[in-house]
Amino acid sequence: MKYLYTALFLIGTLNSFAQKKWTLKECVDHALEHNISVKQSMLDIDLAKQDVINAKGNFMPSLSANASQNFNFGSFIGQDGSRIKSDSRGNSFGINSGVTIFNGFRNLNTYKQAKLGVEASQLQLSILQDDISLTVVNSFLNILFNKENLKIAKEQLTISLNQRDQITSQVEAGIKPRSDLFDIDATIASNRESIVNAENSLDLSLLSLSQNLQVSPVDFNIEEVQINLTSVSMAYSSTGEILSHALDNRAEIKNAELNIENSDFGVKLAQSAYAPSLSFGAGLGSSYQHKQGESDVRSEYVMDPNNPGSIIETIVPYGFNAQIENNLGYNLGFNLSVPIFNGFKTKANVSKAKINREKSILNLEQAKLKLTTTVTQAYADAKASLKQYQASLSSVASLEESFKNVQNKFNFGAATSFEVEQVRGRLVNAKSNLINSKYNFVFRSKVLDFYMGKPLTP
Predict the structure, then answer these.
(1) How far is CA 439 from CA 150, 183, 299, in A?
(2) Closest Cα to residue 445, out of 433, 436, 454?
(3) In the prediction, which pLDDT does 230 show?
(4) CA 365 to chain centre
């Protein structure tokens, strides 16, 4: 029953996704929340944070404990330094601690570099989220475009069917030749083919968006959005304002700047190998030994109370606790290491770090040039799509008048069905171009807003 309930819950969840109509904001939010690359990027941030914790640990003293169990056969060196011919077993225990006092600021620079790693990972996530958002917005607008194209195709079929009824009446009345019926039937077949093509394009665009959202494509649909461009104009007069904002705020540029700062720390870390290092250590330890098959005893020499001036040997217990206490020792010490020569490895590492810094500077310049090109191209595309939209508006208006005129002529027998279809074909193409240019302009405008830091969704 538990598995049955789970299956029913999953099916219900999928159905709820399929039956709902997705808004643009829901699409973008869902993609950002469930995209695998985004989740991986978030894990990269978590990894970078662990590097910071690890770097902090370099400032703290180390502490370790050790214990050993040894078995000796034949002979061994006793606690007093003499060789004893006997099998034995022994234990040793110790605690050690150490702390780095100075190592050329390596720990400090490692910590600062780790903090930059977190910032860089967060910027990478921001870049990825921006790319996904743009992709989703483009896919959403593509669906709206295909929906309008489908409406036009269905409208054309309706017009053709009405026209066929009219021609049939005229043919039966002897006003039109029967060949006109063949022509309109061919047009109707072409209209139906256009509907099929438009439906396929719509289905593919819906499939593309559902895959981006990682939801089931079954019955997937979006909320109808009416985009009416009553007054069309460019929101920005030039690329200057957009480019200035983008160069100051875009994550790509900030990430490239962080890479330069990161390479600076890389140079400092490489140079730290030239500096001496100083550390402090402390420890304590003790040991225990036992002759196999014998009791833990030892000899002690004391003054003979019955014979002053004489020394007598006495045997006393010398068990585990007594040995541990008696053998307990402490140590404190400083360790200074001064690098003198290591086969030019440090010199080579410093040179490599400086070269990497030069590369990161060039990468920043390249990122700025790429962003400048992208923004300039986006502005040119938006401007061109605006002109295309305005031209398409004019073309549709002219062709609608032309189509009305030729239709009237056809109704009075002054034009052939071939002439009507020629004008109508041009009108359909013009309307399709108008829709395409409209959504193209909307998307290009969104791209410019995107580089200005404005949200892509309402």
Answers:
(1) 15, 34, 102
(2) 454
(3) 59
(4) 23
- Which residues have CB under 8 Å from 154's CB, separation 6+? 195
Please tell me the distance from the alpha carbon of residue 319 to that of residue 34, in angstroms, as a whole number. Answer: 66
Residue 287's SS3 state is: strand
pLDDT at 81: 67
Q: How far apart are CA 421 and CA 188, in angstroms?
A: 11
List CB contacts of 231: < 8 A, sequence separation 6 or more. none
* 388, 255 contact by CB (below 8 A): no
Report the interhelical angle of 417-451 vs 345-411 (nearest 10°): 150
The answer to whether 243 and 347 are in contact (CB under 8 A) is no
- Residue 80's pLDDT is what? 65
Instruction: Give the tens place of pLDDT for each residue, 28-85.
Output: 999 999 999 999 999 999 999 999 999 999 999 999 999 999 888 877 776 666 777 7
Residue 323's closest CA among 359, 297, 287, 298?
Answer: 287
Share of the chain residues as helix, strand and coil, in percent rounded to the nearest 5: 65, 15, 20
Residue 180's nearest CA partner among 197, 203, 202, 164 is 164
List of the chain residues with pLDDT < 70? 1-19, 78-81, 229-231, 458
CA triplet 55, 59, 62: central angle to 5 degrees? 105
In this structure, what token pair is assigned to residue 244? Answer: 């200035």
By DSSP bridging, strand 297-303 and strand 21-22 are unpaired
- Beginning with the edge strand found earlier in the chain, give each strand of the sheet holding 277-291 in spatial order: 62-72, 88-102, 277-291, 329-337
Residue whose structure tokens are 């968006």: 209
Do the Cβ atoms of 184 and 167 come closer than 8 Å?
A: yes
Which amino acid makes up residue 280?
A: F
> What are all long-range contacts of 198-201, with beta carbons under 8 Å and residues at least 24 apart?
198/146, 198/149, 198/150, 198/152, 198/153, 199/150, 201/146, 201/149
Bridge pairing between strands 21-22 and 221-222: parallel
